[in-house]
Inverse folding.
């Protein structure tokens, strides 16, 4: 009897927990009655989904007898179908009356069955947290990302790293158009304040990723798509205010479809903050204007956007010894020690559906940036980081003769200088996409030109006699051409197996000529030819389980600073990366799990030394052999409608096989007497934590109320490549709480309230830093090492809240 009860209990348990309702069907075009391949089929309210095969058929399992299926495709209107029990469905989809905006970025994005690791951040995810912080902080909860900010608040100069690679090694595109500064390859998010308010979605690919336009992707790719078609007119006002006198004001509007063909969307924003670090203020303004024409077979969109930033400098950080006594210390106190820069963007985007299977995209773009940063150089404010003394500047530092007055020779002066950048970046991108049944073929590429003028002026001097009018103490030009062409082929030879090949050729020429800010004459003329092949596969075991793997080779040229900061006898070399990615995806009704393994092997990797140059940019050097390897785990778990937990974990090893450190040697009077080298074996790569974890626990006590606990842990990371505990950033755990509440009112489409309690437990932590050192000889010739560590403390507990009203 006991056995019978046990068997009956097991049967009931099995039927209630493991039994599945299987729904089969075929999806066809309402217009032609032909089967549709690649249609996404999702069980509404779950993570569970699949895609139709080449024959248009699908099979999906549901735990419930009744479910609602959502069918979606780029070229067809979405459709929801209620099901009950095991069914055989025939679903017809109606072609969209307009070509979808997604085709604009399709050539440079990873597809749903891509054999690489990627995440997408939706507009809704952005809206939940877009209070004032820059884009790095809005995508901080995606795997392997570490964010930091000079002012300590995420407003102003903010940065991110992916898998330990800084953002100069991360390819960023806006609508498929390169955004990285071509010379430095850096990404200056501060130049586009509140750009997130004009973004529809962001895709983050880790590793080499798929072929794209612009700089080489050695850490990852961030593909940003701006506002898409809004069929109905709207207006939106939003504002936020919080600690450190931080506030944001944004106004948006959209006309909706005019005469079923035209749309206009616009945005105007301003952000201000005093910053957590003393005087690290930001005054940021921006606008975005977009006009579109939508036909049944084509799209023409014009985007014009501008960012204007004024930030007080805080890039020298806080010395290690002051962290416990004055965490908000800022060296600079000259009132106009600011960075002022304006950047204007113009994009003309065109997409055409050519026949039944082809879509052609092209874009013209132009960016103009101009600005300067101003510095006072004198005993009141000028602090020499190397030796800790206040001083004036020598006339000879500016190519000027000493001033002779009678019998007196004056060799130095206090002064105010401005260092200018005036640049132009323009070009075109193109792609042609062919999609039929089991085959997807893409031909794409770009040709871009950059011209940048760097010069310095003296706008005031204590002893100005002898300084010519409009005098430029340095003046140099940088010209860069960047062209690429790529071919992508995705093919499904058998059911459930998808293979791809991605081949890219890239040509880069870089010329720098003229005098640099240290008065050295620069004459650099480099040409590079890169071949970047990629291949891989993905295999669906069933609708819940998928395996994938890929192998890619990436090549990347040195940036401008790599040349200008390098010793003349050690010019930087291009880098090569071999990237192996392999993973597993599991999708169930209430659970989504992704596990990705990566091995990135570098030849001549340009690693950060931990030092900065005289404008705060990090200095890099080539190392012969190095690697990054790790496992990335992401899980989204939603057992009931009122609870969801998103968590991601990265565990990695980031090593240099052999590293040589070169340190200068000074005598007791700080005179340079030589240098010395120290060799290390199998050390950690700088700024590469071995463990990163993010967690978002959300509860929904009411349908429109969301309470979230957001946590981020980053393990210790070293400031240089020696692996010394004397030069490292300590690990930290930060917890934030975010509250979102939405109301639907008669006179408003939506009112959204957001409250963020950041750094809930007031954790004292630093997320970035730098170091430099030297040996000093005493009078007896005995040498001792001194290191200078500087850190960027982040804000303690702070609150910011916002309201958005959408009409």
């Amino acid at each position: 009897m006991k056995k019978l009860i046990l068997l009956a209990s097991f049967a009931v348990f099995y039927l209630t927990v493991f039994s599945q309702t299987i729904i089969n069907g075929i999806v066809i075009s309402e217009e032609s009655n032909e089967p549709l391949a690649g249609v996404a089929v999702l069980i509404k309210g779950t993570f569970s989904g699949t895609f139709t095969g080449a024959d248009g058929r699908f099979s999906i399992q549901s735990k419930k007898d009744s479910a609602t299926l959502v069918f979606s495709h780029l070229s067809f209107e979405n459709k929801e179908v209620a099901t009950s029990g095991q069914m055989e469905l025939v679903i017809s989809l109606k072609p969209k009356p307009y070509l979808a905006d997604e085709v604009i970025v399709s050539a440079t994005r990873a597809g749903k069955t891509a054999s690489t690791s990627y995440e997408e951040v939706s507009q809704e995810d952005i809206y939940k947290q877009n209070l004032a912080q820059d884009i790095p902080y809005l995508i901080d909860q995606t795997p392997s990302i570490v964010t930091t900010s000079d002012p300590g608040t995420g407003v102003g100069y903010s940065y991110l790293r992916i898998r330990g690679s800084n953002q100069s090694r991360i390819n960023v595109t806006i609508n498929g158009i390169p955004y990285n500064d071509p010379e430095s390859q850096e990404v200056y998010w501060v130049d586009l304040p509140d750009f997130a308010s004009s973004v529809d979605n962001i895709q983050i690919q880790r590793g080499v990723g798929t072929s794209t336009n612009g700089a080489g992707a050695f850490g990852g790719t961030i593909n940003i798509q701006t506002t898409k078609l809004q069929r109905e007119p709207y207006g939106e006002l939003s504002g936020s205010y919080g600690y450190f006198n931080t506030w944001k004001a944004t106004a948006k509007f959209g006309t909706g479809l005019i005469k079923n063909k035209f749309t206009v969307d616009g945005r105007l924003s301003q952000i201000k903050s005093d910053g957590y670090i003393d005087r690290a203020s930001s005054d940021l303004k921006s606008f975005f204007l977009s006009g579109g024409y939508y036909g049944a077979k084509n799209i023409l969109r014009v985007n014009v956007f501008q960012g204007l930033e004024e930030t007080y400098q805080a890039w020298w950080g806080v010395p290690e010894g002051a962290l416990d006594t004055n965490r908000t210390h800022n060296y600079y106190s000259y009132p106009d020690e600011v960075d002022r820069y304006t950047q204007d963007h113009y994009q003309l985007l065109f997409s055409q559906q050519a026949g039944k299977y082809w879509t052609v995209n092209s874009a013209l773009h132009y960016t103009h940036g101009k600005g300067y940063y101003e510095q006072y150089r004198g005993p009141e404010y000028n602090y020499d980081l190397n030796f800790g003394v206040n001083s004036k500047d020598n006339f000879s530092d500016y190519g000027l003769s000493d001033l002779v007055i009678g019998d007196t020779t004056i060799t130095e002066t206090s002064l105010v200088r401005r260092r200018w950048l005036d640049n132009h970046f323009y070009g075109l991108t193109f792609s042609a996409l062919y999609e039929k049944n089991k085959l997807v073929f893409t031909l794409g590429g770009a040709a871009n030109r950059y011209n940048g003028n760097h010069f310095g002026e003296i706008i005031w001097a204590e002893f100005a006699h002898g300084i010519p009018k409009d005098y430029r103490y340095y003046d140099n030009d940088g010209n860069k051409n960047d062209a690429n062409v790529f071919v992508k082929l995705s093919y499904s030879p058998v059911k459930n197996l998808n293979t791809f090949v991605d081949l890219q050729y890239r040509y880069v020429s870089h010329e720098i000529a003229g005098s640099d800010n240290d008065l050295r004459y620069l004459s650099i003329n480099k040409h590079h030819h890169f071949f970047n092949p990629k291949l891989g596969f993905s295999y669906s075991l069933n609708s819940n389980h998928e395996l994938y793997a890929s192998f890619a080779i990436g090549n990347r040229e040195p940036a401008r600073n790599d040349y200008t900061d390098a010793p003349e006898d050690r010019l930087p070399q291009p880098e090569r990366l071999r990237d192996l990615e392999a993973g597993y995806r599991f999708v169930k009704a209430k659970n989504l799990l992704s596990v990705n393994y990566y091995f990135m092997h570098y030849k001549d990797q340009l690693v950060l030394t931990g030092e900065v140059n005289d404008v705060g940019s990090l200095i890099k050097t080539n190392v012969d052999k190095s690697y990054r390897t790790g496992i990335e785990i992401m899980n989204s778990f939603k057992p009931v409608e009122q609870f969801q937990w998103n968590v991601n974990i990265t565990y990695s090893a980031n090593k240099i096989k052999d590293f040589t450190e070169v340190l200068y040697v000074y005598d007791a009077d700080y005179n340079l007497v030589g240098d010395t080298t120290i060799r290390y074996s199998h050390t950690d790569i700088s700024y590469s934590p071995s463990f990163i974890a993010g967690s978002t626990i959300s509860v929904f006590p009411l349908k429109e109320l969301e309470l979230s606990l957001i946590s981020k842990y980053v393990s210790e990371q070293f400031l240089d490549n020696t692996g010394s505990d004397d030069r490292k950033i300590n690990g930290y755990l930060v917890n934030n709480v975010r509250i979102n509440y939405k109301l639907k009112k008669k006179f408003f489409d939506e009112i959204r309230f957001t409250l963020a309690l950041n750094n809930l437990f007031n954790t004292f932590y630093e997320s970035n830093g730098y170091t430099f050192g030297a040996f000093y000889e005493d009078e007896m010739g005995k040498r001792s090492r001194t290191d200078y560590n500087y850190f960027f403390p982040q804000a303690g507990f702070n609150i910011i809240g916002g309201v958005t009203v959408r009409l």
